[in-house]
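queue> pop job 88
queue> type: inverse folding (structure -> sequence)
queue> payload:
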């Protein structure tokens, strides 16, 4: 099948997320019609392959084993999702090993065949007129007269994060890595320009306040950052996520340093000018082209937008003052409750220091991975 697509100068891909499935076709527009026919053949008459399924399951299980050895996955995916949603969360919402091994290839091909029967949209980027595209799709994209509504997405309730907690996972290493997590407001596009400038100024890169203070000035961390992370969908909360990677013996000073910065953001006029210029340059040079236009459009739709929000960021950040940033910081970040996530060796972590930030609880890999 791949060879047939190759002959047409085309390729296809399938990806799935928490609440959507994307089937994409790309290649020579002159071969659009035969490529669509080939894709339709795949969707409507897929062939079960027991060996391919067996290899896929083995690959998934190997990836899971590797993930439990990866400190980045442990902290930034497993622990972060556990803190946000609890034990049942998007990261742990996977088939068990027993369920994977019990899968039959016919089950998966049946799922593939069912995709065109659900409500869906077709996005196109290319040179064709819409009428011509419609002719090709009507002739080749086979769907029932009435499409079924898409199944409801599985919703995971966000935890309130009102209690002072410190979750830690034992991992054999000399360093310690810490995340400060705070639940913010629900997403609002009106905050986007201020958030963009705050992130660039305060914790975005090597020129940010956090990096310059904790790493360059005080040598308390080998890496440090902080960001106000906007939600990717309306109705969901934003989060403040601050990171420190440090030597275990410097953990008390590093945590205290981050806490102080989150409480009282220093003013540095030169850094603010650089942050504004950086945002302007990034937007001016980062062109959204080709199929990225479609993906950008989809991201905007999920946020209730019908235009590129970077326009607001570009136009409004240039005239913002430090006073406006400080007002945002004091209202949305200063004094907000934090949940602390720590990964490090139990023989090196300073638990007396960690207890100053809340009740300390160890998490096992089974708890945070779900397997």
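queue> result:
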């Amino acid at each position: 099948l791949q060879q047939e697509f190759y002959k047409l100068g085309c390729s296809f891909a399938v990806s799935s997320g928490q609440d959507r499935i994307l089937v994409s076709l790309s290649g020579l527009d002159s071969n659009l019609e035969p490529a669509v026919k080939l894709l339709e053949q795949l969707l409507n008459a897929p062939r079960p392959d027991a060996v391919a399924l067996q290899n896929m399951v083995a690959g998934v299980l190997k990836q899971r084993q590797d993930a439990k050895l990866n400190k980045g996955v442990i902290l930034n995916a497993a622990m972060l999702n556990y803190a946000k949603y609890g034990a049942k969360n998007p990261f742990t919402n996977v088939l068990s090993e027993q369920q994977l091994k019990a899968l039959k290839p016919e089950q998966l091909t049946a799922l593939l065949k069912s995709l065109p029967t659900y409500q869906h949209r077709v996005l196109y980027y290319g040179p064709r007129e819409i009428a011509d595209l419609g002719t090709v799709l009507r002739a080749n994209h086979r769907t029932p007269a009435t499409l079924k509504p898409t199944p409801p997405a599985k919703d995971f309730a966000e935890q309130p994060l009102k209690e002072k907690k410190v979750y830690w996972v034992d991992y054999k290493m000399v360093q310690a890595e810490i995340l400060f997590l705070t639940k913010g407001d629900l997403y609002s596009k009106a905050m986007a320009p201020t958030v963009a400038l705050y992130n660039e100024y305060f914790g975005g890169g090597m020129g940010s306040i956090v990096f310059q203070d904790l790493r360059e000035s005080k040598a308390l961390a080998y890496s440090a950052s902080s960001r106000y992370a906007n939600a990717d969908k309306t109705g969901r909360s934003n989060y403040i996520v601050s990171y420190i990677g440090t030597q275990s013996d410097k953990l008390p000073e590093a945590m205290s340093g981050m806490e102080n910065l989150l409480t009282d953001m220093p003013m540095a006029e030169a850094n603010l000018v650089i942050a504004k210029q950086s945002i302007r340059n990034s937007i001016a040079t980062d062109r959204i082209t080709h199929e990225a236009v479609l993906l950008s459009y989809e991201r905007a739709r999920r946020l209730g937008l019908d235009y590129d929000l970077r326009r607001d960021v570009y136009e409004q950040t240039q005239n913002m003052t430090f006073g406006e940033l400080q007002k945002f910081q004091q209202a949305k970040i200063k004094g907000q409750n934090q949940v602390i996530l720590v990964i490090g060796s139990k023989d090196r972590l300073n638990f007396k220091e960690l207890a100053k930030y809340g009740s300390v609880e160890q998490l096992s890999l089974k708890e945070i991975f779900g397997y």
